[in-house]
Amino acid sequence: MEGPFFDLVFDNPLEQSFTYQIDDKAQAAAGKRAMVPFGRRDCLGYITAERKNPPDGIKAESVKKIRRVVDSELLFGDKDIELARWMADFYFCSTGQALAAMIPSGRKAVIPDLSYGDEEAQETLSISDEQAAALHEITIGNGNQKHGIGSQPSMFYLYGITGSGKTEVFLRAAQHMLNEGKSVIYLVPEISLTHQTAKMITSRFGSLAATIHSGMSPSSRLAQWIRIRKGEAPVVIGPRSAVFAPVPNLGLIIIDEEHDGSYKSGNTPRYHTRQIAFKRCGSEGARLVMGSATPSAEAWKLMTDGNIKRLDLSRRLSGGGMPEIKPVSLAKTDGCLTKELKEEIRLTAQMGKQTILFLNRRGFAYFYQCPECGWELTCKRCSVSLTWHKSRDRCMCHYCGYYEAPPSACPKCGCLEAGFRGFGTEMIEDEVRRTFPDLNIRRVDADTASKKTGLSGNTGEEKAVKNLEETLSLFKTGVIDILLGTQMVAKGLNFPGVRLVGVIFADTGLHLPDFRAAERTFSLIVQVAGRAGRYFPGSRVIVQTLRPEDPLITRSCALDVTGFFNAELKQRKALGFPPFSRLIRFTVRSKEESRASSSINHLASIALSLIKNKSNIDMLGPAECPIGMINNNFRRHLIIRSPSMNAVHPVAQELLSQYEKGKDAKTYLEVDVDPVSML
Ligand code: ADP
Ligand code: ZN
Ligand code: ZN
Fold first, then answer.
1. Which residues in the chain come in under a pLDDT of 50?
2. Alpha carbon nearest to ligand 1 atom 19, residue
3. 645-675 core/surface letters (b: 16 or more CB in 10 A; e: else)
4. C-beta 165 within 6 A of ligand 1
5. E strands, 182-246, where?
């Protein structure tokens, strides 16, 4: 007798599974990986099912053999494979790609191991009334559970100003679940927050906690995964991929800093952690709690509509007050520091306190332009300005890593005056050093922390991480007077001595062709302002801007989240954007512009015929992407949209299958369900 047979899927776009057989059946099982011959090579695949007979029409003799079963223990249970199938369906990827995303290979960003700030965790606090009420709801309230919808989990949102003690509530909710014999997944944004919070959690839960992060080697990640699956670590902490942690008896998923962009995966499958958490909590009967001082528009609407129970924390608990936040016009300022900001920096230093200077650099470059003819230095492979990095004397592309030496004269008209414009962190660093020669100044930015630059090898990365660690711990102990940085300094960091936060240029990012630009700017200003005065009153925030009267700026300075969302949601509704609609974005790319155009036009014509008679679905585009070229690929996109995912998803499915039939092999198509970036 032949068999048994096993179905395998692979980390490639093919949705189909392939059947293999094995002589020694003892080792093979659904949920393990195996090496098998695939085409002309050997490939690693995931066993998803066992079967008695080969598929219809295939003779047993012709079924290829598994070369080797890789895992001695199960990696995936039925529940995980089921989740992967659901993901494949929802995000238009293959089951193999979904399984691969659940245990990523661990070669992405290096996460700094921030070995400071674990001291707070030791003392036992007595919690405030607000904290106690929130904790009570999260652990035993019903979270506006809609009765009758069986798979809708109990959901809560801990909406608390920065420094209001959300972490303590999360930790206690986790403890409560442990006491009940249940497991907890505690999700945090990538980069800085991870290790500070991880340290705190580890010191609370000791060996019951497992940390997953993207800096781990594949083997230690696998070891953690197996430990978790065996129930040896009922508290799992990590960034987005930890949402897949195979904990038995899941009781609670926590999503800290819910608004953070890193919860959406940037590559296939482009899942959103919130969506996966929602799905898991629903099918495993667990609770879901999110938290932030600046919820996403999606979460805000769910709260206002009563679909998520909102829990408020309205006070700072460790002696801090909210800072006084002031918009200041940059209009008549030479350089990048206003008189007001300089005076406050001086005053802060005299008081023996510290300053954080924040530059929102997203979409903003320190770019090279000719004053005579307007020629601009752009990437040869992407259509974006190159950023000048003075310390390396290089002009770099932040999308593909390309760099070149800065030109000494304009290559177009020969003008020798051509030079650099805009603010970069390095230029601000120069100005701050010149203005305050007696103060200790340090800079951290994304370049010193994560490796998009394409310049540094492994040792460079390690050095950068070391630097960052050192800088942050020096800042924490008060040795550094001024910390200058980008997004890195806005996220979750908790420094006791900060009296002043200066936002160098708040308008950055507002010009991006993305309907979330205002939301991101608002949230960043509020978050970065939240770094000031966490432990003492009288702190200050100066927000430098070219439009101090703009409602977005005045509302962020007033920390007026409600006012901001009232205005923003009105506009989103009028324009039909999320959270009032769901989007599915199709992006094609090709080395040849004509192929990119004809593919997107082909896609658009199918889409139009599919939505012709459907009044609740429309199409945006086709158009060139805001970043029209990346790495020598021309990019075009279109978006289909509907108030209802149930309406738009099947159309996307049909669109894909019709497009696949006649597609151009030299263009690539990427589908993004609920896209977060439109660039
Ligand atoms: P959030 O996450 O809401 O921004 P944190 O959780 O970082 O705020 O808390 C801010 C500070 O308040 C921390 O130093 C924390 O130790 C402290 N804290 C939290 N709860 C209490 C409490 N009940 N009493 C006193 N201090 C508290
Ligand atoms: Zn010129
Ligand atoms: Zn480039």
1. 1, 106-121, 147-149, 193-194, 362-365, 450-461
2. 165
3. bebbbebbeebbebbeeebbeebbbbbbbbb
4. yes
5. 183-187, 209-211, 235-238
For 9, the token pair is 């899927």
Please tell me the distance between residue 373's alpha carbon and the centre of ligand 2 in angstroms. 4
- 168 CB under 6 A from ligand 1? yes
How far apart CA 623 and CA 638 sit, in angstroms, is 6
Cα(629) to centroid(ligand 3), Å? 8
Give the mutation target among 164, 256, 260, 531 for probing the ligand 1 site: most ligand atoms within 8 A of CB: 164
Q: What is the pTM of this model?
A: 0.88
492 within ligand 1 shell (Cβ under 6 A): no
Name the one residue in this structure whose structure tokens are 């499915």.
653
Ligand 2 centroid distance, CA of 427 (Å): 23
Q: Two tokens at 440?
A: 């200790």
Using alpha carbons, list the distances in angstroms from residue 8 to 12, 30, 433, 482, 531: 12, 9, 60, 55, 50
The pLDDT of residue 377 is: 83
Residue type, 590: S
Task: Locate 567 and state its tokens.
Answer: 């205005």
Token pair recorded at residue 286: 């667990």
The four Cα atoms 60, 64, 65, 68 give a dihedral, to 10 degrees, of -150
Asked if the peptide bond before residue 189 counts as cis, ω within 30 degrees of 0, the response is no
Q: What is the DSSP string of 500-511?
A: EEEES-TTTTTT
Q: Is 382 helix (H, G, I), strand (E, B) or coil?
A: coil
| pLDDT (0 to 100) of residue 496 | 85
Assess contact for 502 and 529: CB atoms under 8 A: no
Query: What's the Cα-to-Cα distance from 340 to each of 214, 337, 357, 543, 548, rounded to whole Å?
Result: 41, 8, 13, 10, 14
pLDDT digits (tens, 9 = 90+) for 368-382: 777 777 777 888 877
Residue 361 CA to ligand 3 center (angstroms) comes to: 17
> Token pair 């799992």 is at which residue?
236
Helices (H) and strands (E) in the chain, counts: 17, 27
Backbone torsion region of residue 492, taken as left when φ is above 0, otherwise alpha when ψ lies between -120 and 50, otherwise beta: left
- Could you tell which of 171, 317, 494 is best to mutate to test the pocket of ligand 1, judged by most ligand atoms within 8 Å of the CB? 317
